[in-house]
Amino acid sequence: MHELTVAENIINIVATEAGKAGSDMVSEVCLEIGLLAGIEYEALDFALEVLAPGTVMDSAAITIEKPGAAAKCNNCGCEFSFETFMGSCPDCGSADLAIVRGNELRVKSITI
Ligand SMILES: [Zn+2]
């Protein structure tokens, strides 16, 4: 399961950051995972629940921010948000689009 690997990475990042701050326990972790990041939120929650005990995140409250998806048209420059990718600009119909939001996958903040 892909989410298990992601959860492991998250815990490693948090452990490294906590270590830099001289702590082996964190109280809160905020993750930013966009709707396009390819992560099943429930599966990730579950993976963290399974892996966190005994780690730096043992008693951490976990918040997941879920930025919606947005794209920018390279032809006319308009930016639009979407839920299901439609493949063309709603303004000019161009298919030359760049994703500008929604593929985030990172640890946003850690509270020790
Ligand atoms: Zn356009």
Strand order of the largest sheet: 2-1-6
Q: For the report, how would you describe the main beta sheet? A: 3 strands, mixed
Number of domains: 1
| Distinct helical segment count | 2
Structural class: alpha+beta
CATH topology: hypothetical protein PF0899 fold
Just name the CATH architecture. 2-Layer Sandwich
Helix content: 25-40%
Distance between the termini: 29 Å
Number of DSSP strand runs: 6
Low-confidence regions: none
The CATH class designation is: Alpha Beta
| Bound ions, cofactors and other small molecules, one mention each | zinc ion
- Rg to the nearest angstrom? 17 Å
What is the general shape? elongated
Secondary-structure element order, as H and E?
A: HEHEEEEE
Mean pLDDT: 94
Q: What percent of residues are in strands? A: 25-35%
